[in-house]
Amino acid sequence: MSNPGILIDIRGVDRVYYDTTGRKTEALQNVNLQIRKGELISFIGPSGCGKTTLLRLIAGLDAPQAGQLLLNESPVEKPGFERGYVFQQGALFPWKTVEENIAIGLIARNVYKEKKPLVKQYIDMIGLTGFEKAYPHEISGGMAQRVAIARALINEPKVLLLDEPLGALDAFTRIDLQNTIRKIWKNTRTTIVLVTHDVDEAIYLSDRIVIMTARPGKINEIIEVKLKPERDRNDDEFIILRRRVLEKLHLAGMHIPSRLVDPVELINVLGLGEAI
Ligand SMILES: Nc1ncnc2c1ncn2[C@@H]1O[C@H](COP(=O)(O)OP(=O)(O)OP(=O)(O)O)[C@@H](O)[C@H]1O
Ligand SMILES: [Mg+2]
Fold this sequence. Notes:
- By secondary structure, this protein is an alpha/beta fold.
- The protein has helices at 51-59, 98-108, 112-115, 117-125, 141-153, 171-188, 199-205, 236-249, 263-269; strands at 6-18, 24-36, 40-44, 66-71, 74-75, 83-86, 159-163, 191-195, 208-213, 218-224.
- It has one domain (6-268): Rossmann fold (3-Layer(aba) Sandwich).
- Helices cover 33% and strands 24% of the residues.
- The chain is globular and about 45 Å long.
- Magnesium ion binds next to helix 1.
């Protein structure tokens, strides 16, 4: 049955992997989730519970063995511009400047001429004015993640998929970027799906937190974050919620990031095809 408030409908999704010795890993088992239009939803859970797998299925970088994923009621079959994807390590093109990295989606879509002003607009939004001509090796890790987020946003996606975008950053930079993500979300009202292992980050940013468990990867619980829009990490309600999420997770602090960016997938999510 259709529901106009739902952007992404994940129904009975299984994803199994076999390694070279034939050993089976049930990365996701019977996952059901409806992502609402305009919400910011986080996936949190121990390393290996299938967070990246689920995000990649939504992105169309991978396909389930059972079940289906619908975006606005149409099956997800491959990556598309209406889904912006930010890899954990940013994955910028090192030979391109900040503004060239951000403009790449416009060039790939053949709309650079008419949409060029958007480059400056997104550089402003992510706070990188003055660094337009810098190369990736000349900017910090936090700045690189800002560029990766702007590169995804410039295509004005219906959903922004963020795979631990702040995971490799120091605590201070991370808080700064959390505020940027919140500002972007408020300004654009884009639906955001955020994978994180940081409980405070999930509570600070989300409308809902999806807690996952490992082997087989499943949704354990979905927590609605009913805090006021201006959030304070030291608020009593924040602290109570933090305790509740940590209790559910058991495994706080046991995170090991696992995935490197495959350049072919980067080209696919950016829709570059033969363009480079
Ligand atoms: N291409 C693959 N081939 C084989 N197994 C895989 C593959 N990708 C993921 N897996 C396995 O599937 C499970 C889920 O992996 P996934 O990367 O989705 O976890 P995750 O929750 O994102 O973990 P992390 O927090 O460490 O990033 C893991 O056990 C992983 O080893
Ligand atoms: Mg992951």
